[in-house]
Design goal:
Chain lengths: 231, 231
DNA sequence: TACAAAACAGAACGTACAACTTGTTTATTT
DNA sequence: AAATAAACAAGTTGTACGTTCTGTTTTGTA
C-alpha cells in the first residue's frame, strides 16, 4: 500500500563542499553592466569546460555554478533555465569561431590559405567549445524547450560559413565546384567526426595524419591551389 | 534547517499507462533459452530505437521496457543495470555491422567494391544502430561504470575493420597507402559526421551528394580503382 | 509428483536534479 | 539621502530516474 507518500530521506542531498564565492575586497563600486557580463562570461566558460569534458547530462547547473565560482542564485538570475545557459553557450561559441576563422585566414599568404583550410577548421572545431556545441545539439534532440530556443540561433549559420568560403575562393581567382556545398559539408563532417574520436583516444598523432590527408584531398578537388610542398 | 528529511510526495510517480505485457495464450511451454533470447532481443531492439531517436539520457529504462513490451522485472532479470543493456546493444550492433559489411561487399563485382565503399559504409554507419552506438560512446564519457564495461568490448574492433580493408585491397591486387590507416579513420569520421548532421536535417539529398564526393575522393587516393562512370 | 531454479511482475526506495522561493547585498536614480 | 531595481545568496520542492526488494508464474530436473 502506498497511497500515502512515504517519508523519503534526502538528508545527504546538500553535500556540496560549501564553495565560497569569490569575495570582493575592493571598495570601488563595479557597474552592474560589468558585474552581469562577468558573471555571464564565467558561467559560459565553465559550461563549455564541463560540456567538453563530461558531456551534457553530467553538466548539471550546480556543477557549472561551482566551477564558475558563481552562486546558484546568481546563475538563476542570469539564466533562469538551464536551456538559457546552453543557448548563451552556442551564441558565444559561434561568435568566437567566426572571429577565429577570420584571424586564421588573414594570417596566411593569400594563395595558400585554401590548402591550410583543413588545419584551420580542425583548430576551430576540435576545441572544447566545438565539442560543447556538439553536445548541446545532441541534447536538443530530447529537449523540446532547448530545441525551440536554439532554432532561432542556429538559423543561417551554416549558410554563412559556406558563403564565406565562396567569397574567399573568388577573391583568389578560383571558381567553386558545382557541388561546392557538398564538399564543404563533407569537410565539416569529417573534422567533427575526427574531433569526436579524439575524445576517446589520446593518440593525437593519428588524427593529425587524417587531417593531413584532408589537405591532400582538397588539393585534388581544387587543382588550382596546387599541392602542398613537403618541407 | 533540514536535518530531518522532509516528507516528499511521490504520489504521481507511477503514472505509466499500465502497459500490459503481451500475454501468451498458447499452451505449449517455451524453453527458457528461447524466452530469454526473445526478451533480450526485444530489449536491445527497443534500446536501439530509443537511442537513435531520442538520445541517451532520454532512453530511460522504463521507456525501453515499455517500448519492448517487457516488464521492468523481466528487464532487470536480464540486464541488472542500465549499463548492462547498453553493452549488449554495442555487442549486438557490432556483430550485425560486420555481417552487413561482408554481405555488401560480396554483392558487388570484385574490382568495383572499393569505389562503392563510401556508400557501403554510409549504409551501415548511418543506420539507427550506428547512431545508438555513438550515443552510448558519448554517454560513457560521464559514466565510469559504463565505460569500464565497454572497454573490453571495444578493444580491437577498429583494428579489425582496417585489417579487413587491407586484405580486401590486396586480394584485388592493390597496395594500401602508407597512411592507409589515416585514410580509413578519415572516412569513418566523415561518415559519422554526416550521419550526425542527418539527425538535424531532413535534407537527405544534400548528404548523399557529400557521400558521392567521398566516392570521387577515394578514386583520387587509390588511382588503381578507376573513376566511377557516369550512368 | 516434488522441488529447485529461472523468468517474470511490479511496488518501494533513495537520490540527484532543475526549478522555485525567500531573503540579502550592491548599484543606480531621483 | 531615500527609493528603487538589479545582482546575488541559498534553502526548499517536486519529480524523474536507476536500483532494490518482495512476491508470482513458468520451466527444468530428480
Amino acid at each position: 500500500m502506498s497511497t500515502k507518500p512515504a517519508s523519503v530521506g534526502r538528508s545527504t542531498a546538500r553535500a556540496l563542499p560549501s564553495q565560497t564565492p569569490a569575495r570582493r575586497t575592493s571598495k570601488k563600486p563595479r557597474p552592474q553592466a560589468v558585474r552581469s557580463a562577468d558573471t555571464r562570461r564565467r558561467l559560459v566558460d565553465a559550461a563549455v569546460a564541463c560540456l567538453s569534458r563530461y558531456g551534457y547530462s553530467a553538466t548539471t547547473v550546480s556543477v557549472v555554478a561551482r566551477q564558475a565560482k558563481v552562486s546558484r542564485g546568481a546563475m538563476t538570475h542570469q539564466y533562469p533555465a538551464k536551456s538559457d545557459l546552453m543557448v548563451a553557450v552556442v551564441e558565444a561559441v559561434y561568435e568566437a569561431d567566426g572571429e577565429q576563422y577570420r584571424r586564421s585566414v588573414e594570417a596566411i599568404p593569400s594563395r595558400e590559405w585554401m590548402r591550410e583550410l583543413p588545419t584551420i577548421m580542425w583548430d576551430v572545431i576540435s576545441r572544447p567549445s566545438g565539442i560543447a556545441v556538439m553536445e548541446i545539439m545532441l541534447a536538443s534532440r530530447s529537449d523540446r524547450e532547448l530545441a525551440d530556443k536554439l532554432r532561432s540561433v542556429q538559423r543561417g549559420i551554416d549558410v554563412h560559413a559556406h558563403q564565406w568560403v565562396i567569397e574567399r575562393l573568388e577573391s583568389a581567382g578560383l571558381k567553386d565546384r558545382p557541388d561546392g556545398d557538398a564538399v564543404h559539408r563533407l569537410f565539416v563532417a569529417a573534422i567533427r567526426g575526427l574531433a569526436l574520436e579524439g575524445l576517446f583516444r589520446r593518440d593525437k598523432v593519428g588524427i593529425e595524419k587524417s587531417v593531413a590527408v584532408l589537405k591532400e584531398i582538397i588539393c585534388h578537388l581544387y587543382p588550382g591551389i596546387g599541392f602542398p610542398e613537403k618541407p
